[in-house]
Amino acid sequence: MKLCLFQGTFNPIHIAHLKICEYAKKNFDFDKILLIPAAKPPHKDYDESMSLHRLNMAEIAAKDIDYIEVSDIEYQRDDLSYTVPTVEEIYEKYPVEGMINFIIGTDAFKNIENWYESEKLKKMVDFVLFVREDEQALKADETYLQKLKEKGYNYRMMKMPFIDISSTQIRKNIHNSVPIKALVPQGVANYIDKYGLYRK
Fold first, then answer.
1. Does a structural domain hold residue 199?
2. Do residues 1 and 97 lie in contact, with contact meaning Cβ atoms separated by under 8 Å?
């Protein structure tokens, strides 16, 4: 199985996340994309009361997409949601062909050396990068990205257009009563409305 992981906070999951999965599936011929909401993200402040909601919204968003599987693997552990233990467990659970691929934004990838057990992680996955900045900012980063590759962080770029949607902006829109239906799947919008999420 050619397996690709997409790990994130997904607070909330939105259309750009799904477009990234669609592009990766189409262009890299993955058999499955494992969407992994971080139960306790170590690099971000998070609202513990939102953890289960984030998982539920991811499941709603992906329920009709046959190549996406939403995993609660990080909800089964009590510790912070570090990537290395997750990847180790996935190698044990799935019949992976070759290396696991790992989708990551260029902004996060630039800080990859600061991740927990980063030297170990780079030997466990091949990274698949999507652009989280505009084209001008990305060009300024090309030299640094190349240096990471020289250090053993193998990656390839998704040549998909930059999609200017962020979970942060969606939360702000909800707080300010700005419509979000064009930014998230309808089922996710309904879920957010049902539980009154992000209002405060």
1. no
2. yes
